[in-house]
Amino acid sequence: MRLLHTSDWHLGRSFHRVSLLDAQRDFLDHLVATAQRHEVDAVLVAGDVYDRAVPPLAAVELFDDVLHRLAALGVPTVMISGNHDSARRLGVGAGLIGRAGIHLRTDPAHCDSPVVLSDRHGDVACYGLPYLEPALVREELGATGRGHTAVLEAAMTRVRADLARRPGHTRSVVLAHAFVTGGEVSDSERDISVGGVGSVPASVFDGVDYAALGHLHGCQVLTDRVRYSGSPLAYSFSEARHTKSLWLVDLEADGVPRAERLSCPVPRPLARLRGTLEELLEKPEYAPHEDSWVEATLTDPSRPREPMARLGARFPHVLQLVFDPADDGAQDGASYTDRLRGRNDQQITEDFVRHVRQGRAADAEERRLLTEALDAARLRDTESETVR
């Protein structure tokens, strides 16, 4: 069976105030053309269809259009909600839409009810695990712990139980939206940590033939059976070195997945340039980036006059300006963004406490209070998106 794995469309999102709707439309055209050209048996969308719980009308129209086009091709689509989506909004009409071959899986209670596809080798059970916010689904799933690993384990226990009741030759696929240990993060993913810990081990997905993951925006392989497709477009300059891709997965008769990486169209390349203003304006080696979206980090010891306007004369698509004087005492010359990369909300908050108290770190009780406050804020944000 041939599957096309994608995720993290973030329809409606902009890039530093530049609309990406045209680029998102081009990607969806590419997705439909790829599904048709490679004669895929199903499209898998592993969450974050939209960028926010209440997406703009133009984003909803893009979504509606691509579903109609996939349905017209007769290509079944299995789709889950991610942490950016409103699961309840995305799941409206799922029963009716399912009759057209578009299968929305947004309710955690139905994570063990697969979409069953068939080919000449038999059945493939596709289970959709929407983003699972531990505080909201722990009791419903009967999880024994409070974190992401506990709720995903509980959901996968249900999946394995359902799979065990099916014929022994049934192959299995799981779609999930989570931060799996070993994955490489970027600046554009919303933190989903709980109690300072958001990652789950890849072993959570043991027992299934292929895990199609969403949430992290870089295309990556954790194991031969556990992969992120990544986002189809770059949503931060930290993704400048990403090759945006889809996974074309052939699930063999014995359940072994064989994957090929297919590149996505690039609306405009990204460039992260660093140097003094005069260096960026004069050096010939920067010429290839003159048509790129540019993040410029200026190392001048003092801020130059009108730097954005002057950079714009050479780089008309410069979008972000960072000041990082070469002698400012920064850690190993790293910019503020670089120093934050890979650190979760808990670590950043504790660093702030240490900074304002001139090096005195938070004690155990203060760390506990910070954890509770961050979890409460995250839960309040999730609940408000669910209600809206």
TrEMBL record:
Q: Which domain of life does this protein belong to?
A: Bacteria
Where, if anywhere, are coiled coils annotated? none
Keywords in UniProt for this one?
Answer: DNA recombination, DNA replication, Endonuclease, Exonuclease, Hydrolase, Nuclease
The residue ranges of the Nuclease SbcCD subunit D C-terminal domain are 267-355
Q: Which InterPro entries match?
A: Calcineurin-like_PHP, DNA_Repair-Maintenance_Comp, Metallo-depent_PP-like, Mre11_N, SbcD, SbcD_C
Query: Which GO molecular function annotation, any one, does this entry have?
Result: 3'-5' exonuclease activity
Q: Which family does it belong to?
A: Belongs to the SbcD family.
Among PANTHER family, the record links this protein to:
COMPONENT OF ATP-DEPENDENT DSDNA EXONUCLEASE (PTHR30337), NUCLEASE SBCCD SUBUNIT D (PTHR30337:SF0)
Q: What is this protein called?
A: Nuclease SbcCD subunit D
Gene of this entry: sbcD
